[in-house]
């Protein structure tokens, strides 16, 4: 009876060790994934998260396209974005607090060929977003 009891104790110790090692591995993977997050942002320095900045830039572009579409005939112009290209194009503003995004979108309209259009978007220390579209 003593042998059975000691083998159960040994199995429990192995089980607890496996559980502990699994938790440590999971914690390490979490730290690794968080440190590699492409949308990580210093909100304290830049006043906006990187995600919010990208969304504000897309919104500003949408407003400009709405105004352009009011004056253009032949169908509305649409903007399509490559999300990976947007995230890769964002950097800290070298002139101080804020973000800078240099990227492009694909402008398309029914009956016309699509065209890649470069744009630059930046935010200042107060989080105000400005957009410049290449003509």
Structural notes for this entry:
The chain is an alpha+beta fold and 135 residues long. It folds into two domains: 1-36; 43-133. It is 49% helix and 25% strand. It has four helices and five strands; from the N terminus they run αααβαββββ. The protein has helices at 2-35, 43-46, 50-71, 83-88; strands at residues 78-80, 90-92, 99-109, 112-123, 129-133. Strands 1, 2, 3, 4 and 5 form a five-stranded antiparallel beta sheet that branches. Strand 2 (90-92) and strand 3 (99-109) form a beta hairpin. It is elongated and about 85 Å long. The protein starts with a helix and ends with a strand. The relative contact order is 0.14. The mean pLDDT is 87.
SSE blueprint and pairings:
Layout: H1 2-35, H2 43-46, H3 50-71, E1 78-80, H4 83-88, E2 90-92, E3 99-109, E4 112-123, E5 129-133
User: Number of helical segments?
Assistant: 4
SSE pattern: HHHEHEEEE
Low-pLDDT segments: none
Average pLDDT metric:
87
Note the main sheet. 5 strands, antiparallel
Would you report the number of β strands? 5
Helix amount:
40-55%
Strand content: 25-35%
Separation of the first and last Cα atoms: 87 Å
Structural class, by secondary structure, is alpha+beta
The tally of domains stands at 2
Radius of gyration: 26 Å
Which of globular, elongated, flat, extended, rod-shaped describes the shape? elongated
In short:
By secondary structure, the protein is α+β, with helices and mostly antiparallel strands. The chain has helices at residues 2-35, 43-46, 50-71, 83-88; strands at residues 78-80, 90-92, 99-109, 112-123, 129-133. Strands 1, 2, 3, 4 and 5 form a 5-stranded antiparallel β-sheet that branches.
């Amino acid at each position: 009876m003593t042998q059975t009891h000691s083998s159960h104790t040994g199995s429990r110790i192995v089980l607890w060790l496996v559980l502990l090692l699994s938790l440590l591995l999971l914690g390490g993977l979490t730290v690794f994934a968080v440190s590699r997050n492409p949308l990580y942002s210093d909100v304290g320095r830049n006043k906006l998260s990187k995600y919010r900045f990208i969304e504000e830039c897309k919104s500003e572009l949408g407003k400009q396209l709405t105004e352009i579409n009011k004056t253009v005939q032949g169908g509305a112009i649409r903007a399509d974005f490559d999300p990976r290209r947007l995230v890769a194009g964002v950097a800290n503003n070298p002139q101080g607090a804020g973000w800078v995004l240099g990227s492009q979108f694909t402008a398309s309209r029914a009956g016309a060929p699509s065209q890649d259009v470069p744009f630059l978007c930046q935010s200042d220390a107060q989080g105000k977003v400005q957009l410049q579209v290449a003509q």
